[in-house]
Amino acid sequence: MDVLVMIAQMLLGLTLLVLLHEWGHFAAARMFGIRVEKFYVFFDAWGKKLFSVQKGETEYGFGWLPLGGYVKISGMIDESLDTDAMKSEPQSWEFRSKPAWQRLIVMIGGVTVNAFLGILIFSGIFWYYGQEFLPNHALTNGVAAGPIAREVGFQPGDRIVSLNGKKVERFDEVMATDIFLGENNQFQVLRDGNINVIKLPANMAGRLLEAENGLSFLAPRYRFRLGEIVVGMPAEAAGLKPGDSIIRIDGEAILFFDQLQEILKARASKTVPIEYMRHGEILQSNLTISEQGTIGIYPELEKLKTARQEFSLAQSIPAGASLAWSTIADNVRGFGKVFSGEIPVEKSLGGPIAIAKKMYGGEWVWYRFWMTTALLSMILAFMNLLPIPALDGGHVLFLLIEMIIRRPVPEKVLIGAQYVGMAIVLMLMVFAFGNDIWQHVLN
């Protein structure tokens, strides 16, 4: 069922994004009297489609391949590479007969709609849900520091005081994307009554993406007790029950959940003595830890007191616009780090499986669905503006060149560029699919 929920969310989100992106091109084309021959959500690859209907001069339909969509605009060199249609004299209702500024508006119509959609959804989320956050002062146990955090100087139990000289009010400020994509960031932390300064290296984003799954940087530090015990796993075999509190494993005291995770990983495949408390009584047993460093428990973590910021409609709009802009800015910086080699390509490029699994997830939560869809809308806007032939950005680039040199770019150049662009996009798709399968299916 989880897989079906992931697929359903991904398909609904992509359908919405593709539909509105292509509508942006369609609406702009029709505004200037340009004929649109096809309007497809998802690709009807090899002529196969789920359904279609002819209305006026346009065929509307759904393809079967959920990797995007398209509008086929008359008189335009696009993915269809219908060069025969370009041999006749230009007609008044064709794309090629319109002024360059009108064609430019048609080309940016899709990304414009995606950008506005992202702002609209983000604003709606702020207005409807507000923003729940964890105040920094609520982390009474300090932070749990993962391996990478320890490498750069953090220690478990550190209490973060400030970031780049500014007092940290909310814990999510510590985990903001721009902190890991930026440079010269430094934390001030309270440790054993003293203030320590921790400077982050410039390649933090790449190091985090290369890290193993699990706690890789910072998280709130939680006390815990045992929740559900998985049948047939080591915890059940050792006699542990829901509500028990683990006190000691192999002679080491346990107070926090990150301590438990670390000790279990260090003693994978070993049988160790364990002490635990049940109804005020201290009990002992032997625990055989799995090869993966797990024992089959779901912890009940202590509740840290969160806070909520409410937004009026007037406040939600600039907040949504700010989040949309920061998403674009993060993508630009992330893209630059991929090209510089700081971030591995295989860790940054995901396909449908990654989107369904890591972004939408196996549980249908409307807040997460809309937040993910808004993020993808902004990413789609950014990616489509890249100056790659076959993408909107490639068409925009040639139109800008035409407007500068005051004459059309030769048709042969446009056709050749389209072939190159389609080859690049196809290779990226193959890589994304292969990377998806390797990262999320075979591993």
Q: Which terms summarize this structure?
A:
single chain, 443 residues, alpha+beta, Pdz3 Domain, four-stranded mixed beta sheet, elongated
Question: How would you describe what is shown here?
Answer:
By secondary structure, the protein is an alpha+beta fold. Among the domains are: about 140 residues, no CATH class; about 90 residues, Pdz3 Domain; about 80 residues, PDZ domain (Pdz3 Domain). Helix content is about 45%, strand content about 20%. The protein contains 13 helices and 18 strands. A four-stranded mixed sheet has the order 2-3-1-4. Strand 13 and strand 14 form a beta hairpin. Helix 2 crosses helix 8.
Summarize the model shown:
With about 450 residues, the protein is α+β, with helices and mostly antiparallel strands. It contains 13 helices and 18 strands.
**Low-confidence parts:** none
The main sheet comes to: 4 strands, mixed
Distance between the termini: 21 Å
Strand content: 15-25%
> What gross morphology would you assign?
elongated
Tally of DSSP β-strands: 18
Total helices: the number is 13
- Alpha-carbon Rg, integer: 27 Å
Helix content: 40-55%
- Strand order, sheet with most strands: 2-3-1-4
Secondary structure category: alpha+beta
Average of per-residue pLDDT values: 86
Helices and strands in order:
Blueprint: H1 2-31, E1 36-43, E2 49-55, E3 58-63, E4 65-73, H2 100-129, E5 131-133, E6 143-145, H3 147-152, E7 159-163, E8 166-167, H4 177-181, E9 186-191, E10 194-199, H5 204-210, E11 218-220, E12 224-229, H6 234-237, E13 245-249, E14 252-253, H7 257-266, E15 271-278, E16 281-288, E17 297-301, E18 307-309, H8 313-340, H9 345-348, H10 352-360, H11 366-384, H12 392-405, H13 411-442
Parallel strand pairs: 1-3
Antiparallel strand pairs: 1-4, 2-3, 5-18, 6-11, 7-8, 7-9, 9-10, 12-17, 13-14, 13-15, 15-16
Helix pairs in contact: 1-2, 1-10, 1-11, 2-8, 2-11, 2-12, 8-11, 10-13
